[in-house]
Amino acid sequence: MADYYNVLGIQKNADQKEIRRAFRELARKYHPDLNPGDEGAEAKFKQINEAYEVLSDSDSRRKYDAYGERWKQADHIEAQRRASRASHDFTGAGRRGNWRQESDDIFAEFEDILGDIGRYRGGRVETAAPPSELSETISLEQAYAGTTMTVSRTARGSVRRFEVDIPRGVDDGSIVRVTPERGIEIRIRVSVEPHRVFRRDGADLYTDANIPFEQAILGGEAQVRTLDGRTIWVGIPANSQNGQNIRLRGQGMPKLGSTDAMGDLYVTVKPQMPESLTDEERELIARFRELRAERG
112 to each of 102, 155, 277, how far by Cα in Å? Predict the structure, then answer.
């Protein structure tokens, strides 16, 4: 794999302004529409695009600087190192499209470049069609597992349909970029529906455990369900307070762009008051109150 810094002709300490400038100059020079039939220019253009996508994102650049051509496995490598120490937090690709979250700089750069260059056909210049922008809503379960959907694009009076992979871990506002054919680009802004049981915060999930009030005092166990449908037992510490969170590591959402890293699941303790009491239960609670009063 070529060195991305060499591809863009920049130093390793280059800032984002230098990276962007180098990318724009090289992309104009090697754009396939200005080099028709030149396979070398097309390959160079793809290489420039790949280098810019990695180096323009601070997280992927950090991973590339640390692991070189193995940067896509950085999360896995770091997780293994953490596990080893213990024993002694976009860009990604689906089968048919790439996702990016937070930054659309790469899209803006290409729109500027294509607008400057245009497409040369029959002796006239035609500006490149802007990417199609779509919005799709998925469930939290689909965001957890990943999903495939069919999207439609209308161009010149005809409707074309494309199958798109939505990767695991997408969040509300994530953007999936699809280039099913040369010259066609579709951007899908994903919305994730609120869930009736789980609340989401990044890769972490929150759910409530409704337990009898005496269990909050004395401690015990409670059953909770994970988002993937499993039922697990959670230990409730004695003297748990209303709203107290119990952390279950690795039981949350997949982290976007990672093959195996997961967020955490937080179980919020919700003690429930009894709706009715027997005379004996009332007497015991009254006695409990007396004892507490005697202690001051």
Answer: 19, 21, 72
Name residue 159's amino acid: V
Question: Distance between CA 288 and CA 293 in Å, rounded?
Answer: 9
State how far Cα 165 lies from the chain centre.
14
Q: What residue ranges of the chain are covered by domains with CATH 2.60.260.20?
A: 90-194, 199-294
Q: What CA–CA distance (Å, rounded) separates 171 from 191? A: 7
Write b or e for each residue in 175-195: b if 16 or more Cβ atoms lie within 10 A of its Cβ, otherwise e.
Answer: bbbbebeeeebbbbebebeeb
Residue 8 main-chain phi, psi, to 5 deg: -90, -5
In this structure, what DSSP letter does residue 61 have?
Answer: H
CA distance 243 to 214: 15
Residue 29's alpha-carbon distances to 12, 117, 135, in angstroms, are 22, 10, 34
- Check: CATH 1.10.1740.10 for 199-294? no
pTM of the model: 0.56
Q: What are phi and psi of 222, to 5 degrees?
A: -135, 145
Residue 237: band (very low, low, confident or very high) from pLDDT cuts 50, 70, 90 = very high
